[in-house]
Amino acid sequence: MRGDGGDVYWRRRISVLVAVLVVVAVVAWACSAGGSGPGRSSSAQSSPSATAGTSPAVDPLLAGLRTLAMGTATPSPSPSPKPSPTKRPKRPGEPCSEEDLVLSLQSGKEQIYAGNARPSFLVTLVNTGSVMCKADVGPRAMEIRITSGADRIWSTADCVSGEGTEIRELQRGVPYVRSLEWDRRRSSPDCRATPAAALPGTYVAVARMGKMRTTKGVFHLR
After folding, report:
1. What residues contact 79, with CB distance under 8 A and at least 6 apart?
2. Phi, psi (5° rounding) for residue 70?
3. How far apart are alpha carbons 43 and 38 in whole angstroms?
4. Which of 52, 97, 105, 125 is the most exposed place for a label (fewest CB within 10 A)?
5. Shortest CA distance to 139 belongs to which of 112, 109, 159?
6. pLDDT reported for residue 44
């Protein structure tokens, strides 16, 4: 009798527990589906086959939590773009910029100088900027240098009397031209009284101004 009564007692307890779980499940489902109306249920039932091959529906409660998490996330601050530097337009008479200058060197028609013939050169400087600018075309600033291999033979920057500066106004597109002859003698910064004569051989002339360099002019002394 006691054994049968015990079984009945536990069956009743289990039945009550199952009933409570069912009630809790029904309440949870009602809360989660409370926002859906008749229109939504009918649209869901009208095409049951459309969800057969797709991923299972996301629980509304989880979807709400994900949306809330995404909405409260603070994006990392992006660096503010640096303002692009604006180049101020030049005013007439300001110093020339090297980017607006074109320097060139031309040698004489004769490439072989025999006897006492002196090599001659023609240097031109052109302003390609939008306005007139000023440049120092003195023998130090606009140098013509002659070399033979690694040997520095002659330069207009050697033994310059006075300041050696010569400021010229360069109009747009109007070339400044300077011609010169080389006396076939060496020069040096120490300005020796009697410079030695250059030996026969191959020589290279180049005009230099700041960072600008012209193409090499090759000639020969005989």
Report:
1. none
2. -70, -35
3. 9
4. 52
5. 159
6. 38
118-135 confidence digits (pLDDT tens): 999 999 999 999 999 999
Which residues of the chain have a pLDDT value below 50?
1-3, 35-55, 58, 60-75
The dihedral formed by the CA atoms of 184, 187, 192 and 198, expressed in degrees to the nearest 10: -40
* CATH topology classification for 94-221: Immunoglobulin-like (2.60.40)
CB count, 10 Å around CB of 128? 12
CB 96 within 8 A of CB 170: yes
**Reported pTM:** 0.59
Contact in structure between 158 and 185 (CB atoms under 8 Å) = no
List the domain boundaries for the chain: 94-221
CA dist., res. 36 & res. 67, Å (int)? 18
DSSP state of 117: -
